[in-house]
Design goal:
Number of helices: 10
Radius of gyration: 34 Å
Low-confidence stretches: 277-291, 293-306
Shape: elongated
Structural class: alpha+beta
Distance between the termini: 119 Å
Order of helices and strands: HHHHHEHHEEHEEEEHHEE
Helix content: 25-40%
Strand order of the largest sheet: 1-2-3-5-6-7-4
Length: 306
C-alpha cells in the first residue's frame, strides 16, 4: 500500500512542464469563456431594459398614468381668443362622435328628439347654476350637454365633455362631479315622468366601476324604471366612447306637495322638452338650424325644439 503511494507521488513529480501548462491553459480558457458569457447576458438584459423604458415612456400603460400622472396645463381663460376656437373644435368633435352618429341613424330615430337644455336657461339663472354657470368654460364643462331623448320620456342619452380642470386625482375626473352630472341627468328623465314635472332627489346610489379620465367625451344613459304618483325611479350609467361602463347609479325622485303651485311650463322649457307632440312631428324632415353657444361658437340643433 505504502509502496503504491510512493510510486504515484513520484509519477506526479515527473510530469513534464508541457503537461502542466496544458492543464493551466484549459482552466484559464474556461474562466474566460464564462466571463464573456456573463458579459453578453448583462448587455442583453441592459438593452431589453432600455428598450422597455423608452416604449413605456412613449406609450405608458393605464396604471402608469394613475400612479404617476403628467401635470396638465391650466385651462384657457374664457376671455382668451383661443377659448372660442377650443370650444368650436370640441363642438365639431361632438357632432361627429361615432356613437352619436350611430344613435342618430338608428331604425327608431323617429322616436327620439335632440335638445341642448342649458341653452334654454335664462342668463339670470345660469350665473348661479353650478353646472350651467360656475363650471362652464374651457377645461371644465366647455359645451352644453347634448341630449338625445325619447318622445315618451322613458330614456335619455346625454353627451358631455369633461375637461382637465374637473379632476380630483390628476387626470381623473372628481367623483363628486360625476355624482352631480348623474343627479342632473337622472332628474331629467324622472321629472318628465312626474305629474307636475317638478321633483327633488330623495335617494341617489352610485357605484364607481372605473376611473373616468379627464378631457374626453362621456355619455350618460338614463332610463325610467318606474313612475307611480309623485314618485319616479330611474337608473343610469356613465360610459366612455368605447362603451366601457365607468359609473352606475339609481335614484328616487319625489314631487313635492306644493308642486301644483309652480309653473311647470317653464320647467319643461328648461329641460328642453319639445313643445309639440310626437304625432305632429313624426315623418317631418326638419333641417337643423345654427344656435350660438356660450362664448359665440355655433352648433346645429333641431329647429322643431324650443
Amino acid at each position: 500500500m505504502f509502496s503504491l503511494r510512493r510510486q504515484l507521488g513520484s509519477a506526479a513529480r515527473r510530469l513534464t512542464p508541457a503537461a502542466r501548462w496544458s492543464s493551466t491553459s484549459a482552466s484559464s480558457t474556461g474562466s474566460s469563456s464564462s466571463l464573456w458569457r456573463n458579459a453578453r447576458l448583462f448587455a442583453g438584459a441592459t438593452s431589453i431594459a432600455a428598450v422597455s423604458y423608452y416604449i413605456g415612456a412613449l406609450y405608458p400603460p393605464e396604471f402608469a398614468h394613475l400612479l404617476s400622472p403628467r401635470t396638465a396645463p391650466p385651462p384657457i381663460h374664457p376671455d382668451d381668443p383661443a377659448a372660442l376656437a377650443h370650444i368650436a373644435e370640441l363642438e365639431e368633435e361632438l357632432q361627429h362622435l361615432p356613437m352619436l352618429e350611430a344613435h342618430r341613424a338608428r331604425e327608431d330615430k323617429d322616436q327620439w328628439y335632440e335638445a341642448r337644455p342649458y341653452l334654454n336657461l335664462p342668463e339670470e339663472r345660469r350665473v348661479n347654476s353650478l353646472t350651467a354657470g360656475t363650471l362652464k368654460g374651457p377645461g371644465k364643462l366647455a359645451l352644453p350637454p347634448l341630449v338625445r331623448s325619447r318622445h315618451d320620456a322613458k330614456e335619455n342619452w346625454i353627451f358631455i365633455h369633461v375637461g382637465r380642470a374637473l379632476c380630483g386625482h390628476e387626470g381623473v375626473v372628481h367623483g363628486g362631479l360625476l355624482a352631480t352630472l348623474l343627479d342632473e341627468s337622472l332628474a331629467r328623465v324622472a321629472l318628465l315622468n312626474l305629474p307636475e314635472k317638478v321633483g327633488v332627489t330623495a335617494n341617489l346610489n352610485i357605484n364607481y366601476k372605473a376611473p373616468t379620465r379627464a378631457h374626453q367625451f362621456i355619455v350618460i344613459k338614463v332610463k325610467l324604471d318606474e313612475a307611480q304618483g309623485r314618485k319616479a325611479r330611474v337608473s343610469g350609467t356613465i360610459e366612455d366612447m368605447s362603451g366601457n361602463v365607468l359609473v352606475e347609479a339609481s335614484a328616487l325622485f319625489v314631487q313635492p306637495r306644493y308642486a301644483k303651485l309652480l309653473n311647470s311650463t317653464a320647467v319643461r322649457h328648461m329641460l328642453g322638452e319639445p313643445s309639440q307632440s310626437k304625432e305632429s312631428t313624426a315623418g317631418e324632415t326638419v333641417a337643423p338650424v345654427p344656435v350660438k353657444l356660450p362664448g359665440g361658437a355655433q352648433t346645429l340643433v333641431d329647429s322643431k325644439n324650443p
